[in-house]
Amino acid sequence: MTAVSCPTVIERPRDLPTSMQQLASRAQYRKGDTIYYQDGPAEYGYQIVTGAARECALQPDGRRQVVGFLMPGDMFGFCTPQVHRFSGETIAETTTIARYPRHRVERLAESDPEVARHLLQLANDAVERLQNRMTVLTRPTALERVSSFILYMTDGVAGNANNSVVLPMSRYDIADYLALSVETVSRTLTELRQRRVVELFSARCGSIIDRALLQRYSENGEPRSHASQWD
Amino acid sequence: MTAVSCPTVIERPRDLPTSMQQLASRAQYRKGDTIYYQDGPAEYGYQIVTGAARECALQPDGRRQVVGFLMPGDMFGFCTPQVHRFSGETIAETTTIARYPRHRVERLAESDPEVARHLLQLANDAVERLQNRMTVLTRPTALERVSSFILYMTDGVAGNANNSVVLPMSRYDIADYLALSVETVSRTLTELRQRRVVELFSARCGSIIDRALLQRYSENGEPRSHASQWD
DNA sequence: CGCATCATTGACTTCCGTCAAAGTGGGTGG
DNA sequence: CCACCCACTTTGACGGAAGTCAATGATGCG
User: Fold this and answer.
1) Model confidence over A168-189: pLDDT tens digits?
2) The predicted structure's pLDDT at residue A3
3) Smallest Cβ distance to B224: which of A57, A63, A226?
4) CA angle in degrees (0–180, nearest 5) for B38-B39-B42
5) Which domain holds residue B150?
6) What are phi and psi of B165, to 5 degrees?
């Protein structure tokens, strides 16, 4: 069972009030489609039905951050000001997404406390996603970041009791998520493979061989913190 | 006026509904006091009245992250599950904080849509704080991170039209916020001082000499992103 | 006045980013 | 069906930036 210790609390399943579900419409996307644009109007909230997506932030200097990955069941685009802070883009070859008109959801929330509670919950989820990434970004070494990431991608994924790893996103996406160069991501994966901690059947699909070790790697590196000067 | 481009949208002022304000009680803290504990019950939300505080995450391996700094007007501890993900600790010698019982606020939100809206807004603020830090953490060089940080600490601070910089927190706090070593933070500040971009009257107090340059430093470094493979 | 905490500086080493090049695989069109 | 192409992935060599270790300065509080 090995209770997972750190950043990997994911919120995949979500039971919505039917009053809210009824507002949804579905849309099909193909790989690389933009669901919504950064700085564009935030008219809808979304939920992945099948496939996968990513949230990106394009910075003024042209750099790209991948802020989070979205898997089936994940909801996103609800906790945002009038204008999207990120863009949402599909990753998987074909992705189905349920779309909720935000203003109607919000109107519903005014009268239905249960819906309001769910909206707050969605905000919490968004915070959690961000915090997951932050945790990973504070790890000083590439080995720790990549290890964390692999664990993150296996834990909490629906129907994944075993140790299989599926990476729907490219190495570039991973690199921009972990704030590393592609080369470093690739090298680190190779190293994990050579150390027989994971095995990869193909570039994007494999399994964990030694989960405990991976866990240790992800928390590895000597403490470099300056905790509690005042007890 | 040089519109600030990037990570520095802060949300200092906050007009709360009086129905919510009436729930508040005040408390005095001294430097280093813990306002609430990570993994402890989240019974209250808070607002800094005077002084300053930090949110910290202690990781299982013993490392500390400083997740964010809280200045007068900032609200925090509202957007959290039953249990605090962070701890909250005061930084300033004496800090006054308004305390809102969460369950009463939430109960109020069930009947008062305006309060509910404010709660969502607070979630947005939390997201914004996290995203500020994330933006900074993705900057590859220490110069960029420290420059961003200085700008972050001057922009949006109430009543700071000028270029004065006040750093209520220690170098260690800054280091744990930027995920750098203390030495690197110190060295980088020294370098900024030598290049006459900032001046420091004391370790924690100074002013910006060349804001434009600081801005450039904070966005410096060649793009290292892998944007839009599929345009 | 003295100690403890915080801050700075220096020397050395390691890790990662950059540049460059080769390898892989899947999809499309001939 | 095959071949080509393009996007993606991997690997290698090199240099620079930041972490670590160690020591010295500053500052503030008792």
Assistant:
1) 999 999 999 999 999 999 999 9
2) 32
3) A63
4) 85
5) 140-230
6) -120, 125
Residues 173-192 of A with CB under 7 A from strand D: 182-183, 185-187, 189-190
CATH, residue A103: 2.60.120.10
Which of residues B87, B109, B136 is at a domain's end?
B136
The one-letter amino acid at A211: R
| pLDDT reported for residue A160 | 58
* C-alpha separations of B196 from B6, B9, B213 in Å: 23, 26, 10
Q: Is the CB of A230 under 7 A from strand C?
A: yes
Same-domain check for residues B131 and B150: no
Q: Is strand D less than 7 A from the beta carbon of B205?
A: no
Using N-to-C axis directions, what is the helix angle for B113-138 and B102-111, rounded to 10°? 120
Q: How many domains does chain B have?
A: 2
Look at A94-108, B123-137, B163-177, B200-214 and tell me which has the smallest mean pLDDT.
Answer: B123-137
Supply the pLDDT for residue B79: 87
pLDDT of residue B218: 93
Whether residues B191 and B150 share a domain: the answer is: yes
Tokens for A212? Answer: 């405990």
Closest residue, chain B, to A31 (C-alpha)? B230
What is the three-class DSSP state of A24?
Answer: coil
Q: Which residues 6+ apart lie within 8 Å of A204 measured at CB?
A: A166, A167, A168
Q: What is the C-alpha to C-alpha distance for residues A36 and A153, in angstroms, rounded to an integer? A: 24
How far is B97 from chain A, CA to nearest CA, in Å? 20
CB contact under 8 A, A123 and B79: yes
